[in-house]
Amino acid sequence: MKYIYTTLGPKGRDELGMILPHEHVFVDLRTPDQPGYAEAEIDAVVAVMLPQIEAIKRQGITLLVECTTGGVGRRADIDLAVSKAADFPIVVPTGNYREPWIPAWVAEADESDLERWMVSELTEGIEDTGVLAGWIKLSAGDDGITPLEARILRAAARASVRTNAVIGSHTIRGRVVMEQLDILQSEGCAPERFISIHTQEERDFGLHRALAERGAWIEYDHVGRAPDEELVSMVMRALESGLGEKLLISHDLGWYDPAQPSGGIPRPYTHLVESLLPSLRAAGAGENLVRQLTEFNPFEAFAR
């Protein structure tokens, strides 16, 4: 049996329906050395984000993947509090974002130390929350992966081999994702355990196909941030090209931002069910394909 590890414990396939594989509950895009970084009152975050979670529960969404990683304000304790208040499972990552969002201790750690840290969070828990990390979230620079980012990626690859946790990376250029896959494979990590986050930003569809053919997951995560007609065209092209079994779709929305007054104004996670899925059905995507994209694929990507 495979499970997705969440704030409310491990969840099997029979316990889950639709899954949002790329969203945020709490994010701080200030660098970790800034005053007030990642600081917020838990109750204040719950008050803002609970209605957002309740709205998707009413739509039939059963799980949300938190994509806020180290360096951009990850707070597993806040995710846990929101999750408990909503009685709704959230998947929290280990790992760290790209430069310059890398804290000093990560920059100074060697690959073995980083590997041990990620494995510990994946198997023992994050800090004192009792929450097991459900996956590994990283990033790479737009112009190429830096030596420090490559060190973190190699450590992540080794942690993935040991735990079968999937690695997802915020990477804008398809050629850089190809570099990342080369590094992963050099460490014995299969491309099937890698998610190319923000694949839509790579305009060369041939690279989308090439990534999927290597085994990686591709993710179109700008639902509700781009016109539906653009998303429908992109998704249908992927489906018609035989990439349906490797495709994830989500919003990349939310979230409470401690740098903004009262956390800012969250953007809802509801557009997929409200608008995009009906548009995909109208364009010819049958119910089996819709379930593939919203249920089966995200479970297979994140389960271990």
Short characterization:
With 304 residues, the protein is α/β, with parallel strands linked by helices.
Could you describe the 3D structure shown?
This protein is an alpha/beta fold. It has ten helices and eleven strands. The chain has helices spanning 42-59, 76-86, 104-108, 111-123, 147-163, 174-186, 205-214, 228-240, 271-282, 287-302; strands at 4-6, 9-11, 18-23, 61-66, 90-91, 93-94, 135-139, 167-170, 194-197, 217-220, 247-249. The strands form three sheets. It has a six-stranded parallel sheet with strand order 6-7-8-9-10-11. It has a three-stranded parallel sheet with strand order 3-4-5. The protein starts with a strand and ends with a helix. The model has no long low-confidence stretch (mean pLDDT 97).
- How much beta, percentage-wise? 5-15%
Spatial strand sequence of the major β-sheet: 6-7-8-9-10-11
* Helix-strand string: EEEHEHEEHHEHEHEHEHEHH
Unreliable stretches covering 5 or more consecutive residues: none
Structural class: alpha/beta
Please give the largest β-sheet.
6 strands, parallel
- The average pLDDT value, as a whole number, equals 97
Helix content: 40-55%
Shape: globular
